[in-house]
Specification:
CATH class: Alpha Beta
Bound molecules: nicotinamide-adenine-dinucleotide
Oligomer: single chain
Helix content: 40-55%
CATH topology: Rossmann fold
CATH superfamily: NAD(P)-binding Rossmann-like Domain
Strand content: 15-25%
Strand order of the largest sheet: 3-2-1-4-5-6-7
Shape: globular
Distance between the termini: 39 Å
CATH architecture: 3-Layer(aba) Sandwich
Number of strands: 7
Structural class: alpha/beta
C-alpha cells in the first residue's frame, strides 16, 4: 500500500533533517522526488546521492515564502513528470524567543516560511494534482500546536498550520486531494541540536528519548500513500507520548503512583 511507483512528490526543506529523510523514503518507495530547499549544496548532494542509488530525484532552489518560487517549482515538476501526487510542506524555522523578545520582522519572517509557505504551496500544487485525480498533502506542524509553547511565532504558525490543514482538506476533497498534518515532538536535527531545552524535553517525554527523522518519515510515507486513503483533515502527533499527558505522568511518577 505504500508503493509510490509512478508517483511524483515535492518535499520542501529537504536539504537536511526530517525533510531529507522524508524525500529519501518517498524516493525509496518509488516516487520521483523534487527536493526543494534554500540550502543548495545539501539539496543537490541529496538529489545526486538518490540518483546514484537508482532513485528519481531532482533539486530545485526554493524559498517557500516566495509565490514566484512556487510557480517555478510547479512548472519544473510539470515539465519533468507532467504530474504531481504528493506535496510535503516540511520547511520550517524557529525563533526560540519570548513575546517580549520577538521583533516584528522575526515574527513576520517565521510566519512567511512556516505558514504562508504551506498556503502558497497548496495553492500552487492543487491544480496540477487535480489533473491526475488528486493526491496527498502532508503539512509538518508540531506538537507545540496543542499547547502554549515558549516560542510565540513558532507556536502560532504551527497551530495555524493545523487550521490550514483542515480548511484545505474540506476545500480540496472534491478534487481528490487529501490534506493531513504531522505533529512531531522532539526530533534532534539542525533545528535544535544546540538548543538548551533538549535535556528537559527528553526527561519529560514519557518514552525518555527524542524521535528520529526516520520515524517521522515513515508517518509521512503512510499519509502520502494509498495506505491512508480514507484519512483527511487530521493531525498525527508523533512525540513519544508527550502530548498524551507528560505533565500528569510526571505528577503521577513523583507522587509514587507509578513504579518506574
Ligand atoms: N526538530 C524538531 O524537534 C521538530 C519538532 C516539531 C516540528 N518540527 C518541524 O519539522 C520541520 C523540519 O524541521 P527539522 O527538524 O528537519 O529542521 P531542519 O532545520 O534540520 O530542517 C528545516 C529545513 O527547512 C529549510 N528551510 C528553512 N527556511 C526555508 C525556506 N524559506 N524555504 C525553503 N526551505 C527552507 C532549511 O534550510 C532546512 O533544510 C519544520 O517544519 C519544523 O518546524 C521539528
Amino acid at each position: 500500500m505504500t508503493n509510490l511507483a509512478d508517483r511524483v512528490a515535492i518535499v520542501t526543506g529537504a536539504g537536511r533533517g526530517q525533510g531529507e529523510a522524508e524525500a529519501r523514503l518517498l524516493a525509496e518507495a518509488g516516487a520521483a522526488v523534487l527536493i526543494c530547499d534554500v540550502l543548495e549544496r545539501e539539496g543537490e548532494d541529496l538529489a545526486r546521492a538518490l540518483v546514484s542509488e537508482g532513485r528519481e530525484a531532482r533539486f530545485l532552489a526554493l524559498d517557500v515564502a516566495s509565490k514566484e518560487g512556487w510557480a517555478c517549482a510547479i512548472d519544473c515538476v510539470g515539465s519533468w513528470k507532467g504530474r504531481l501526487d504528493i506535496l510535503v510542506n516540511n520547511a520550517g524555522i524557529i525563533n526560540r524567543k519570548s513575546i517580549n523578545d520577538t521583533p516584528l520582522d522575526a515574527w513576520e519572517r517565521l510566519m512567511a516560511i512556516n505558514l504562508t509557505g504551506p498556503f502558497l504551496g497548496i495553492q500552487a500544487a492543487a491544480p496540477l494534482m487535480r489533473q491526475n485525480g488528486g493526491g496527498s498533502v502532508v503539512n509538518i506542524s508540531s506538537n507545540s500546536a496543542f499547547s502554549g509553547h515558549y516560542d510565540p511565532a513558532y507556536t502560532a504558525s504551527k497551530w495555524g498550520l493545523r487550521g490550514l490543514t483542515r480548511t484545505a482538506a474540506m476545500e480540496y476533497v472534491s478534487w481528490g486531494i487529501r490534506v493531513n498534518s504531522v505533529c512531531p515532538g522532539l526530533i534532534v536535527t539542525g533545528l535544535n541540536a544546540e538548543a538548551p531545552h533538549l535535556k528537559p524535553m527528553i526527561d519529560l517525554t514519557p518514552m525518555k528519548r527524542s524521535g528520529t527523522v526516520e520515524e517521522v518519515a515513515r508517518l509521512v510515507l503512510f499519509l502520502a500513500s494509498e495506505a491512508s486513503s480514507f484519512i483527511t483533515g487530521e493531525d498525527f502527533v508523533i512525540d513519544g507520548g508527550f502530548t498524551a499527558g507528560a505533565a500528569y505522568r510526571r505528577v503521577a511518577a513523583e507522587s509514587g503512583l507509578y513504579r518506574d
